[in-house]
Amino acid sequence: MEHPSTLISSRSKTSPKQLLVALAGNPNCGKTSLFNALTKLKQKVGNYPGVTVEKKIGRMMGSTPDRSVDILDLPGTYSLAVRSPDEQVARDVLLGQMPDTPRPDVVVCVVDAGNLERNLYLVSQIKDLGLPIIVVLNMMDAVKREGKVIDLVRLSQRLDAPIVPTVAMKEIGIEELKKEILQGTRRVSTQRLQLPENLQHPIERLVQVLKEEHGLNPSLAYSEALIILSKEDLKNEPLVIHSPAVKEVIMDIRQSLDQQEINWRSAAIEARYAGIQNILKDVVQQNSPRRISWSERIDRILMDKFFGWVFFWGIMGMMFFMIFSVATIPMNWIDGSFARLSDGLKTFLPPSELRDLLTDGVIAGVGGVVIFLPQILILFFFIGLLQDTGYMARAAFIMDRVMSKAGLHGKSFIPLLSSFACAIPGIMATRAIENPKDRLVTILVAPWMSCSARLPVYTILIATILPAASAWQKAGIMLFLYLLGILGAFAAAVILKRTILKGSTPFFIMEMPPYRWPSLRSVILQMWERSCLFLKKAGTIIFSLSILLWVLMSYPKSPSADISAQLNHSFAGRAGHLLEPLIKPLGFDWRIGIGLIGSFAAREVFVSTMNIVFNIGNADNHTEPLRAAFAQATWPDGSPLFTPLTCMSLLVFYIYAMQCLSTVAVVRRETNGWKWPVFQLVYMTGFAYLASLSVYQFGKLLNF
User: Fold this and answer.
1) Less CB within 10 Å around the terminal CB: N or C of the chain?
2) Chain center to CA of 192
């Protein structure tokens, strides 16, 4: 096996004309805002090889032909003592052990200037790795408002590293940081954490053994020794495979410290914080009396047991109102554009199978989904605002009071809220949850948060039930549907935590960042990234499925020229008829069955499938004709198909069914096998069927 020190030296050979700069820092330190300010729109988003952790890299603006700089935004972490996949990735990159990612030439340590002691803990660990660092004191405006002054010269001398003060949200200090990055002189600090005498000798002994047994360089051996000394379970230590000699030394050290009544679990941590306190001595001065901050004043209202909930649900209600009011303007424009494109093709092309494929298949299918892009953008806009303002952490704290009742961790709130946009990033966000069982429970219930892919289905069915309803009425129904998903997720979490994933309710500890003005650029950039992903999905998956569905509904050809007869005679129609006995108790016919089959690939495909099924290909507006087609659809006996009861049954099915193959694939990767994704697919689909069956049959008994 190749030693880590060898890996580091072999992967750190980069071109002198190209620098790789890693941004490292605690969550909520403004690291992402700094990344956006340095790179603007020159960014690439993907995943690290072999894991689902997001990799963000961009070219620094102002790079010269003589020296180009790539900026790598590492996942936020409080420590290099790995507890989650995010922290694992950050550490592996800094050690040069991440496949396809060279070791950084320099690390920009982003520090919340208002919380120096806590943030410098990670900085001190990165220094131990023997990497050149630049310390960025971010959010200096908040420090000034609190009447504090930081002696930058003294702090730089004690850290033995250059310091750049910034306000990343306002792009203050960005040019100075670029100059520091580009100047090209890199020096590794030789300063090392001063340990108390009763700990210094044991650590030196462990360092020596690590060097001899695993070939670690002195800096890396020292960093590793401080981390593994406090590790309860050495099996989970990711850096090296510890030899019997290393384990024997660790056990001897722990026994010796126990005899001296020194807690080996916290000794190194306490020593590091003591060293940081010594560094900060006389560095921060309070020039004026501390005033109650705006964040504290706002929290007195927004964190109140009563007004906190009022504000939370008010924000949610406003979001859904915007989705049904403001979004209609661009939606109508998109509708008209696709209609004109369809009409243009019918005028330009002679009648043929190709023309029908393009107008009735591709344009009807893709256009029927792209129309909902404005609603999805509004959803991401609100989520971006919640994150940028700092309210997201408060919402997690408020929701913890409820989530703890279900045995969920308060940190589960952020992944669950992210799942309202898309379950995939929501499931990936569970990496911040340390306890494996809590993380797994969150993964298993996250898809029950109504994601943006359900919006097209909800919108068209709500319009069918209440065609003349106001935007506020529709928003109320939408909020109710989201609540049903939340209640289902909580109920499932309770059952899972009391059966197959038993565990105690965890304590919730979370940092509350100060309130900040949101960065419009950051929010828009997030909306841009997510809209590109959505359009890519529409341009690939939905495009392909639209063609496939058109072929399945067009062949084999029926002797009759009637569209309904052709659909009945087609491959898709036959599949729908085979499925109909199973779904008829839910109030669904074979045409809805075709939509259910298609939407197992992606939920929003249901709308594009219905556009093709009901031949909505050349209308001036896709939504209204489809709603009208639903209103006119009947069973063979002439009774209406899309009754309010049927629509409610269908809505309930889409709330709870696991109809997203991409989510299944991500769950498989996050859980390292097929056991849990198959379990999730079965229990969610089974519950959706039973819930839909109950709604329809109970409604019939009440003559609803």
Assistant:
1) N
2) 37
Give me the pLDDT at residue 239, please: 47
Kindly state which CATH superfamily the domain 4-182 is placed in. P-loop containing nucleotide triphosphate hydrolases (3.40.50.300)
Q: What is the phi-psi region of residue 173: left when phi exceeds 0, alpha when psi lies from -120 to 50, beta otherwise? A: left
Q: Mapping DSSP to helix (H, G, I), strand (E, B) and coil, where does residue 84 land?
A: coil
What per-residue confidence (pLDDT) applies to 174? Answer: 93
| DSSP character string of 283-294 | TEEE-SPPPPPH
CATH topology of domain 197-284: Helix Hairpins (1.10.287)
Domain ranges for the chain: 4-182, 197-284, 540-701
CA distance 89 to 241: 18
Closest by Cα among 194, 203, 207 to 160: 194
Helix (H, G, I), strand (E, B) or coil at 82: coil
Query: Hey, what are 588's tokens?
Result: 């669904």
How many whole angstroms separate alpha carbon 560 and alpha carbon 204?
A: 88
Question: What region does 79 belong to: left with phi over 0, alpha with psi -120 to 50, or beta?
Answer: beta
Q: Which residues pair with 137 in a beta bridge?
A: 111, 165
pLDDT of residue 235: 54
pTM tops 0.70: no
**Successive 10-residue mean pLDDT values, the chain, 704 residues:** 36 61 90 88 62 77 76 88 77 85 92 91 89 93 86 92 92 92 73 76 85 78 79 54 76 85 81 88 80 81 87 82 79 83 86 82 74 78 83 79 72 76 75 78 91 85 84 83 89 88 65 78 78 71 76 80 75 89 94 86 79 64 74 90 94 91 80 90 94 95 84
CB 87 within 8 A of CB 230: no
Find out whether 253 and 206 touch, Cβ atoms under 8 Å. yes
Cis peptide before 556 (omega within 30 of 0): yes
177: tokens are 């940081």
**Which of 435, 597, 432, 605 has the alpha carbon at shortest distance from 507?**
435
- Give the residue carrying structure tokens 């950039």: 525
Could you give the maximum distance between any two Cα atoms of the chain, in Å? 94
What is the token pair recorded at 628?
């009208």
